[in-house]
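Q: I have two molecules that I believe assemble together. Could you output structure tokens for the complex as a whole instead of separate predictions?
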Amino acid sequence: MKKVVVVGGTKGIGRAVVRRLVSRGDQVALLGRNAEDLAASAADLAARGASTAPATVLMDLDQPESFDPALEQAAQALGGFDTVVVTAGAFGTQDALEADAAARDRVLTINFTRTIQFCEAARVRLLAAGGGTLCVLGSVAGDRARKPVVLYGATKAGVAYYVNGLDARYRAAGLKAVLVKPGFVRTGMTTGLPEPPFAADADAVAPAIVRAIDRGTPPCWCRCRRWWRARPRGSLGSHPASPRSRWSLPP
Amino acid sequence: MTAQALSGWGRYPVVTADERCSEDLPAITRDVVLTRGLGRSYGDASLPARAGLPIAGSRLADRVIAFDRQTGVLSAEAGLTLHDLNRTFLPHGWFAPVTPGTSFVTLGGAVASDVHGKNHHSAGTLGRHLRRLRLRVGTGDVVEVSPEIETDLFLATVGGMGLTGHVLEVELTLKRVPSPWIQGETETVPDLDTLIARLLEDGRTWPYTLAWMDALGAGGRGRGILFRGRWAEPGETDGAPLVWPREITFPMVLPNWALNPFGMRLFNQAVVTRHGRRVRREQTHPQTFFYPLDSLLLWNRAYGSRGFTQYQCVLPRREGSALYRSLFTTMQKLGATPYVVVIKDFGAQGPGKLSFPMPGLTFSVDLPIDSGTQRVVDALNDIVAAEGGRIYLTKDAFTRPEHYRAMDPRVDEFNAIRRRWDPEGRIRSALSVRLLGDAA
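A: Yes, here they are, computed for all two components at once.
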């Protein structure tokens, strides 16, 4: 059983990842800035059968001074933690960010500076506890510059560089840094954007992300939603079934 | 932000629309006139009243608010899907009290359609199992409704096609099941008369029944297969854990000729031949039993780029099968091919003001769209209106307002309740513009 701290676990991909973690018995602390939202997500997880009630801790990713106290609180609630997942982020299309300097600065700051500041705070705690896994959401938009998401992609590319470096530097000390690069996922963040082929739902990428966390594989591309398979390999559907089940698969 | 092409499950009609999805459903429903769930209604029920009008998408608002493991009372945000609900709660012994033939529907959409399932004769529609709804009405206010509180608005919302307001939260009682497996039986029947008689007979002892009819083969006698099932008792199963099947996506839109009467005839023949004459009994996966097509995502692409419509009507019980056969002879006369025909007997009518089911037999027929579809639907509606039946709005894209009014005089009371809560007539959809006289 893992003890996982999640930033951004109430929405989008984070919500799907947290549900999956909780469904297999992991203990979770949700970090976020909206108490009501956190409580609603905790209630959702509890109603779905979380073995222990998820902890909730107030933290604003835009307030670096809130990072350490929040991680401390999460550690107390969970009795220490071994995994930190960062799925929160800001988004804007290139058009929107070019038109609005404040929004642009917010995306640049939250996705790059604040995310890395938070990861640094998490790194220190994980290393102090003897290691663990730090999973950060990048994007395929950070691999290749794309016209509609240049600035957003740049922040994700920066984070990718950081996570790769972190993994190289600290893996021997027991800290695995995992970078996940989803493709187009239908979430509140991408709503209204023209949908490319092979767009996926958050539920479809969550298994790949959890698997990447378990294995500590840097980096993990999980836009790999091939047309003949709605779910990535290794998701729940591929457990060998009992012999009488209609849906049994060869082991 | 940008317009996308939206359509219902039948891929017709297609409208450019601006669908806004968010986890925060109360926020996105503030300024829009319609909420759409997973878009599984077949026609224009989930489409905006005119192209470009923004609508809210509820599917990301899928949190469970509370679940009582003793009583099975579940409250959840309207975007929770039956797919998610069943996978989450069936392992704990709870299942949707009523489910349509797909689990890819949101709770909000299921309420708006007042969905029925294989257990209509024993359990009624979903509306019978609802305890409370949270609605944003046309004035923008958020209202709690239940069978006791604001009863009229509650009953208008159940089966009200989303036209009384935005469903934000749903509270319902789940069904406790003894095991996660279905004890199922299937049996072939030689003709429509036998099929109807046996369907009604099975309904007396089986909680779940349905019939599939082959309208093309065997000289059009209406041979078919009866499906019946009940939840298996724990002692009957081998204790096998339930594993949900993997889903496969239909890869592309097939050419319009790919599904044709000849191919369908062969397919139907294969189904009947493969089944054989005897009764088959087996422990069945609930996915196979309730949602045979759900493992094939986007199967509506099989009907080609023109799309298809599902004509579903209910007709009162009549002696013999002449009335029911007239549906198929009409289709045949007009050159339409009834591809997939499903028949189900309905029990008593529920209290929903615009709810579809009424005592009788319901027929649902998949029709690929071509230039003659409008004429076919008109001709079928003539029969249904004359016989005192009605059509299912959730499946409809072609019915004319005159026909609809003739079939369903309840519409005036429904509209009166709507106006009370929405004096400016803000909440509307492409369907309400087409059939209920709303302004676009």
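A: One point stands out. The interface with chain B takes residues 10-12, 15, 40-41, 43-44, 47-49, 93, 186-188, 191-195, 227-231, 235-239, 241-242, 244-248 of chain A (CB under 8 Å).
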